[in-house]
Each structure stands twice: as structure tokens, then as C-alpha cells.
Amino acid sequence: MPHIQLNNDAPGIRSLVIYRPDTGKPLYELAQALLRAGSPDSTLLDAERELIAAFVSNQNCTDFCRNSHAAASRYLFGEQASVVDQTLQNPETAPISAKLRALLTIAERVTADARTVTNDVVTAARAEGATDGDIHDTVLIAASFSMYNRYVDGLATVTPDDPDAYVAMGERMGTIGYVLPKSN
Amino acid sequence: MAAPILTYIMPHIPLPDHLPGITGLLEYRLDTAMPIRELTQILLRGESTLTQGERELIAALVSSRNCTNFCNAAHTKAADLLLGEDQTAAAVKADIETAPISEKMKALLQIAAQTQKSGRAVTSEAVDRAHTAGATDREIHDTVLIAALFCLYNKYVDGMATVTPTDPAYYDTLGDRIVNRGYNRPPGGYPAPQK
Q: How many C-beta atoms lie closer than 10 Å to residue A129's C-beta?
């Protein structure tokens, strides 16, 4: 049960942005800008951006965000969808590019303690072809999901157990993107 | 007078020299900066039953717990200016329970401190304490979201290794700007000073 009366039955972040739409609007706009657009020189695909979001949410143990962004990433990867679960299980052995693996190391450090993002891990990402925009966007996606995860868990929002619920969410996120839900 | 010791710490990506801390990052990518600024303006300066000073205390506490010196100094200064004294913010950061604040603010700041650790660390007991002390659902909601937002800021500022000015006068100016102009981007941005 959520810690406060949200007066709607929506799950996760949706229940919160219906509760307070004026803060919900910039929260959804930020997600849309981060996950469906990039810095001008960024090479990251939308599917990879969603995978970073799912990876950070997994590290923070926020099941709702992990499951929904993993579903969006699977939808966007299409035939390569299995890479999502392989990455969440073990990024070292997952069949992803060395560049994405290096960026996930940066994301992991931002999530744990951002002061541990050293020149060494940034240099390693550049050596694999990461651009300034890739590094910036990875740090900001990880920082932003450290916010979303805390918001969703900190107010104890509802997390659906049914895996099918997330398949539908992933398809919606992968097609129409982040659009503020109408209050019910 | 001895020359100040300069330690050259470079951000991980090129940012304007005259915009340390968060400011250079918010100019780097305007499409992500705009919603971050708007969210901050609504939460810290919008209509609320918490005073602006109380909301800046939440920002300062979270930044202090994350050891993000830039945000800690800036929001402590903002809280000091809004509260009209510099004792309360320092006391809150040292020990919430003995700080000269209401029981309701103690309970809300404990929720903020739990949120800083992890969203899953926020307990029903902490929320019950806040409700018992008279906190509304909206105040609890806003406390969690402000604390979560400052985890974003702190991780963004530290994760990009932005420059943290060491001269206290810098934060006097920044605190004054935050208090008197708020969090919206000024028209025309932040032009580099003429050489």
C-alpha cells in the first residue's frame, strides 16, 4: 500500500504523476528527452538508453522501473530482445558492444556513488568509441533513474506482479513514448 | 598574502570555464535542462505549506549526505538567506533530532534522509511519525520528491566531475541568485564575461 493516499489505482510512477500532474509534466518530459533523444554527438540507440534505465533500476532494486524499462528495451531491440535479460544478469558476458559495457560501468558507479566516476572509467569508455554526449547522457540517465527509483519506492507505489502488464507497458513506451496519463 | 593553492580538476567533458557546478551542465543540453529546472522551480518555489527555507533545508541535507560539496554549499546558503540565520541548516546537517526545528520538520527530514539512502529505506514508521506530527500527504510526497531530485543533481554534478569553487564568496552570489531569481534559466543564458 502506498505511504500516502494517491486517489487512483495506477501502478508505479503513473500513480504519482496522476496525483501531482504539475510535477509529473516535467518528470515525463525529462524521460522523453533522455530516452528518445540524445546529445547531438551521441551514438546511443533508444533501446540502449532504455537498457541503461533498466540496469540502474535493477541496481536500485526498483522492480516497477526495472520491469517496465526492460520491457521497453526488449520491444525496441526487436529480434535482439534477449540481450536485455543477459545484460541485467551479467553485463560482462552479455553480447553487447564494448562501448555499451564501458558506459554501463559508468552508470553503475553513478548509481552507487557518483564520486567514484574516475577519469579511468571515462577514458576506458572513450577508448571504445564513446563520445562526450554518450558519457553525458549515460551519467544523466543514471542520475535521473536514481531520482525516479527513489520517488517510486520512497512512496511505496503499487508494483504489478503480472509479467504481461509490463509487456503492454513496454510496447506503449516503445511506440508513443512518455505521455502524461490522464487522471481518472 | 599567499597565493591560493589551485588544484586542477577537469570535468569529464568540456564545459564553459565560467559556469562551475550544475550551471555548465544545464547549459550543455538544454532539452534535458528545461524539465529539470521547471521541476525544481515548482517544488522549491511553488505554492506549498512548507516554507521555501524548509524546502531548501531538505535540499541541503540530501546534498550534505551525498557529500556533493557544490550543492551542499549552494543550498545551505539559500536556506540561510531564507531563514535569516545560519544556525539551523548547520544544526540539521549535524543532527536532525537536536536541530531547532518543529517535530514535523524533524519527521520530514528523516524521510528525506531515508530517501537519500534508497527509496526502499523509507519506513512506514517514519511516515506515521510525520503524519502524527501533522504533516500532510502532499508534504510527505514533496519531501520524497525533493530528496529524490537532489540525488539526481548530486549524482549529475559529481558524476561529471564538475568544478567546485572553493571561494565562499562564490556561494554568496549563487545563494542570492537562487533566492531572488529562482531556478528558471535567465533569458539569454549565461554569456561568458568579456575579456
A: 13
